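Late entry, written up from scratch paper. The run itself happened at the end of the previous shift, but nothing got recorded in the book at the time, so transcribing now.
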Amino acid sequence: MRILLVEDEKKVAEFVARGLRAERFAVDVAHDGDGGLEMALAFSYDLVILDLMLPGLSGTEVLKRLRRQKPQVPVLVLTARDSTADKVEHVEAGADHYLTKPFAFAELLMRVKALLRRGATDRSSVLRVADLEVDRLAQQVKRAGKRIELTSKEYSLLEYLVANTGRVLSRTMIIEHVWDESFEGLTNIVDVYVRHLRSKVDVPHPKKLIRTVRGVGYSISDEPDA
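Output as recorded:
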């Protein structure tokens, strides 16, 4: 898998790139925003690691432009700014994860692997599977035109499933995305929330969309069962 690292602090860039290459990732490095954006648009990357404080184009601007042209590539933001307002701003601009400097390489690696397992996802504002509709901007869900009331975690889980329609997601992948942590041994919480979702999304309708892949995880699809 190929990663683009956009980081102007050369010692940090060298440290991160060396560690990732030791994990057998292919890593390209850019030291300014203009070069980083040019590389991100010119080549196909599985992940972009993006510092915010960059010479030339800021990391924020790089993120916004990248999202307009390549909305699906995962982006991990690195920054020394750790205020809630900064986090909200960049998540809303399209960051998939946010890591505050200084950080341990082990933490960075955990985030990288989680994002790579998640892969590219559909970032359309409205997602649809059969007669199910998920409006990401309004955070509203409808099926057959009727609104479904969900808790925040139920909504996050459903959005993740629908954004990856047809793809089987493991319980660990779901935990790391929806709960934003690695909860080893607590993946049964996923089963609980899937049951909640089914009761609201599937049970009232003849066509069932949420699938269990025994021993693997869950998916959502409008294709007939094999």
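The chain has a mean pLDDT of 86.
(Scratch paper discarded after transcription.)
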